[in-house]
Amino acid sequence: MDVEDTNDADRYRAPALDKGLDILELLSEQKEGLTRAEITKLLGRNASEMYRMLERLVARQYVVRSPGGDRYSLSLKLYALAHRHPPMNRLISEALPVMQRFADTAEQSVHLAVYDRGNLLVIAQVDGPGTWGISVRLGSRVGLIDTGSGRVMLAFQTPEQREHMLAEHTKVKGEITLDAGALEAAYRQIREDGFSRKDSAQTVGVTDVTFPLLGPSGQAIAALTCPYLRRIDEYVAPSIEDVTALLKEAAAGLSIFPAAPGQDSG
After folding, report:
1. 81-254: CATH number
2. 3-75 under CATH 1.10.10.10, yes or no
3. pTM > 0.70: yes or no
4. Domain HTH iclR-type: where (predicted)?
């Protein structure tokens, strides 16, 4: 940072805002919340200024107190605000009709996930038209390492961005640990193929088919996944090859960037 940048940073300082953001960022990393004393100690701040800031964050419903009143944690307000954010709304609104057409034609469910603080967040979900199927709940957090969605998101990033995402990663319940060599091999194969199709690491009998939604820079901004279930009765449903082709078409229609390697037509 040069002298001019430093002067600008000093000129536009907003200490109260910085304190509030420090608290929100700290609480975002805590599963059980923190006491006011813990927050004060971890941030190295004055106790009285932390008290005032916490009271305002509680009043504005960004932070909630525990029933006993001694611990603070994030509310869901930031989550709600993020999903009112126009780019996210636009992605969901554009994706849902495409996902619905896919589900109706493929006779399978489909979900859309984006990267969020070390794992993936499911932001859209459409069920297949049949009387049975498998789906991932809207708002669920799914693993970055052992899911088709996670691996596709990681595969279509720059090495620097992938390193950052892996550094932020925290294991979700039941997530399988894989070594770095296996992951790197998976990324190379996914980039070569343009998509991922693998047996689910979470559910027996499910094959996860995943394509990236690519942004202007060619990096994945979201992952579109069909947890494919094969019919074994007399009903003839679309095959996994048919479903893969349909999902490829859906993802290409939602991508901003031209087709990824392995996703060219033909």
Report:
1. 3.30.450.40
2. yes
3. no
4. 14-76
